[in-house]
């Protein structure tokens, strides 16, 4: 690590020099560290004194504040608290509050939870007692509608409440106004079960508490801070301000203590942010609790700083100052902003202010980064133009004249499998969890000999252009067209996702325009693929693999330098279970070693034998021996690459555990690597590695574009228009590539514009049902002599149906799906062939039993 110091200093010196030259004046990256929210005020609540303990939530696009309490005259001047029953609604951030109804009684200091069906008000108190009432409020046609839900198991106020999944959880509180102790209760109301009823659950193991912060994140519920009630020496009641934090996971019903809060934050508003943060705004830290009577109206107020808890690294970070210090109110998300409405800003005093906060726009890339990326992208254009001179026939366009060196084909196979999604998500998976999925990539080593010995000879000796030509020779044209169409449809969906998701992540992290990311990547990739065909695709893949691996290695080296070396990573990672790799369980619903290893073997076997975008790579080599070497090259690069990606994820975990303040709460876990690249690396280096993300996107996109074009022309156009000239086919192939690239780009832009991602997920899932069937079809053809075309089709369709039922109605792990799909296709296809005989065929050279 000492050797890296001069390198790092030189890089930073280069960035400083560039800055001094004035090139970075407008685009300097934000300083390292968490960025505070920017806050603005909405219209003040109509209650001029403000209210403490209101019920806050959203319904049908409107913000609602109901109930609460205040002091018309300061309690330090003899004033008495007054409860209210008004329900106020704000329909738009630019509008004014209006009174839309009233509660059944004046009420405050309960819990409020926003659900899809409205705001649920839980318990609370008035001037004389506490209540167990649970009411749901809805805004309907501008008015408030009320619905009674089952009462809490007991009356209480000063509770904490949150929603996780379909269930509302209530924790802690105070049983009645004169209670000398807080509650240690934990209840759940599952809104998806009938009849609705509260379920008492085992509470946390720590002290009872009132006014806790309760929030949910990453599938778990957290009880944070709160105040325990104790009897003081004079026989009165005092508070002990707590800093312990407890995590509850519903699937196991287990409570675990997690990192203690840096200070007490009693009655603070809190909200989940992103995929792994809980933000807590202010709170009563207890510093001046015993001096309230002495300070009176001169009390300085509650804490005005935001804290962030990170669920993955189990760390707290200070997010900086906030313009408010409100307690006993609820933070909610509305119109893309976090709302903190009214509340108590100091003992005995309320505020009518309503604050709306959001993270500031991100801009971490510099002019040097931009130039670096531009130069990289320009190099791809030059490669496409250069290689376009060789594409004079379909043999050149589809197979590069079978002149690609074995090592280049192998690197291209690695590149097309390593999409930008994979480049980001493998490190993100290791960062968030452990190395359990490492065994999935080990499966490639196991299946490589099977592909080389049993599949490759047929594809090379038959001199096919698409792998699906084999299916017609072995079965019939219907099976070939079925497989070709399934491949095309799935790749069409995959292209859009491969374009959209990385662009979204880059936009979130760097501030780059998401539409520009999609346009540049999609159109540029289409350009060089149309010009150079498979040869351009392969050679640009080679360049992109070098950039990817180089970027990963550089990131790894710099992280190791910053965290204190490999020993620190190993020590911290081992202590936190980050290197856990093997689960010996026989449970078919978990990531046991058997599921991960053997499930991935089936999945990879299907990819390397029935996916045209992969098979086409080793078909571009000159002979069977060279093709085998290309497959082994992919393995040789893939295994160290896997260690690199998983190691990078663990290093990121240690880095951000040491520096939780450098995390951005608004950035998804999957974008943790781009976040590090954009914020932590020297200027210019960031641009080079961000270019690697673009490279990973293009290396997958160009594969899909070209392979679909090959299948369309070879399996459909040329198959049914045998009189078409080679020039006709070449022109069509280029037109199809251009149209597909344009269509994928436009669809990705639509995904970024409109929220129909769930519909797209359904499409991909439906098409994915045929993935196992394709692998089964090739196994059926190669390893059996009795299988027929009609039987094979029955097997493939049955496989898709069974896989749908397995996904929908069983808890089997998703890694078993490929094995289920292929096995059903093989078994059912063989059985169906016994009763559905096809036309007699000469199987010479088409099965392992009839090799020529």
Can you describe what's shown?
- The chain has 852 residues and is of the alpha+beta class.
- It is built from 21 helices and 30 strands.
- Strands 1-30-27-26 form a 4-stranded antiparallel sheet, with no helix packed on it.
- A hairpin with a 2-residue loop joins strand 26 and strand 27.
- The longest helix has 50 residues, at 514-563.
- The chain is elongated.
List the helices and strands and how they pair.
Blueprint: H1 4-20, E1 38-41, E2 55-59, E3 62-66, E4 69-70, E5 82-83, E6 86-90, E7 98-102, E8 111-115, E9 118-122, E10 134-140, E11 143-149, E12 160-164, E13 167-171, E14 186-190, E15 198-200, E16 213-217, E17 220-224, E18 227-231, E19 237-241, E20 245-249, E21 254-258, E22 270-273, E23 277-281, H2 292-295, E24 305-310, E25 315-321, E26 331-334, E27 337-341, E28 344-346, E29 349-350, E30 354-358, H3 367-387, H4 394-399, H5 406-417, H6 420-432, H7 438-461, H8 469-474, H9 477-510, H10 514-563, H11 566-575, H12 593-610, H13 612-619, H14 624-658, H15 672-680, H16 685-720, H17 726-753, H18 757-768, H19 771-783, H20 789-809, H21 817-835
Antiparallel strand pairs: 1-30, 2-3, 3-6, 4-5, 6-7, 8-9, 9-10, 10-11, 12-13, 13-14, 14-15, 16-17, 17-20, 18-19, 20-21, 22-23, 23-24, 24-25, 26-27, 27-30, 28-29
Helix/sheet category: alpha+beta
**Average pLDDT metric:** 87
Number of helices: 21
Overall geometry = elongated
Unreliably modeled segments: 1-34
Kindly state the percentage of residues in helix: 40-55%
Largest sheet: 4 strands, antiparallel
